[in-house]
Specification:
6-stranded antiparallel β-sheet; mainly beta; Immunoglobulin-like; 306 residues; 1 helix; Jelly Rolls; 2 domains
Length: 306
């Protein structure tokens, strides 16, 4: 019988070393755009609203710490409220969506900073972090890790925040980072605001490295085999199939490419050939991640929904 040993090197190891790779994370550097200033290395809605002499991103002083901080404020311009948004990367001011990030090659554990925020309606803003890696085979970006927090309630004084990153990929390092700061949710109200300063990463989540050795230990059998999704691309349903060597619960999770969990299916006591038809007709068109996990193993595959 073939014997082997699986060695996990620094699985989810967390260190306390800070990672200073957020461009202008303290908002100390600002670029003059003529009639207004913009935080260096960040995109905002200012270039769109400047024609009306209104600005949703402005410099506040003093910082916490430092000389300055970022003030995002949703503003009524004409008949609409333009949300205060800032993106570490590039922002499409028409769709209000981030379109690219900045170079980044670390696997941080935690995103931290300081904020003040308040809304005047019912649509809370948010803070979001996404690290990605370009997939040369699929010609698309894979989400490595993400974190998101809705700005519940209000913070009228500088408050510390801390967000743990959730890793979708345990084997790879990212090549890009996006941070999205939004003063309002999907229904912005005039004067909703989010002030931010002292953004930073801390800790490191290491990759999982597997090595195989023929040292004389008992064979460890992978209980999750022949995982497949059909059809791909799919329209109305996806069949998940796999083989299970031992009886165990199966947990199927579907994530969009931002890392948001959009659907979950759980089956108890499955063994042998397992097939499950998943209804996806209500999901928006796009690319998704199907994660299937058992007692001690899991695997993730991409699928396109048309």
């Amino acid at each position: 019988m073939k014997n082997f040993m699986i060695t996990l090197l620094a699985v989810a190891a967390i260190s306390t070393t800070a990672i200073a790779q957020i461009p202008n994370g303290g908002f100390e550097n600002w670029n003059s755009m003529g009639s207004y200033d913009n935080p260096a290395d960040w995109s905002t809605m200012n270039n769109k609203t400047a024609t009306q002499s209104m600005y949703t991103a402005t410099k506040g002083t003093p910082g916490s710490p430092g000389n300055s901080y970022l003030k995002l404020t949703s503003k009524t311009i004409g008949a609409v409220v333009v949300p205060g948004i800032a993106v570490c990367g590039r922002l499409d001011t028409m769709s209000l969506q981030p379109i690219s990030g900045v170079p980044f090659t670390q696997r941080p554990a935690t995103f931290t900073g300081k904020w003040q925020h308040m809304i005047y309606g019912s649509s809370q803003g948010s803070v979001k972090v996404i690290t990605t890696k370009w997939n040369t085979t699929m010609q698309m970006r894979d989400t490595i890790a993400h974190a998101e927090q809705t700005l519940g309630g209000m913070a009228m004084n500088w408050s510390n925040f801390s967000m743990n990153l959730m890793y979708m990929d345990s084997l790879n390092y990212p090549d890009s980072l996006m941070i999205i700061l939004n003063a309002s949710g999907s229904n912005p109200t005039n004067n909703d605001y989010l002030w931010a300063d002292n953004l930073a990463f801390s800790g490191t989540v290491a990759v999982v490295v597997q090595t195989v050795s023929t040292v004389g230990v008992k064979e460890v059998q992978n209980n999750l085999n022949n995982f497949a999704l059909f059809p791909n691309p799919a329209k109305e349903s996806v069949q998940v199939s796999l083989s299970l060597a031992q009886s165990q619960p199966i947990h199927i999770e579907i994530f969009d490419l931002t890392g948001k969990l959009v659907q979950t299916v759980k089956k108890e006591g499955m063994v042998g050939e397992f097939k499950e038809k998943i209804d996806v007709k209500d999901l928006p068109k796009g690319t998704y991640l199907f994660k299937v996990s058992g007692n001690s193993v899991s695997e993730t595959k991409k699928i396109v929904i048309e």
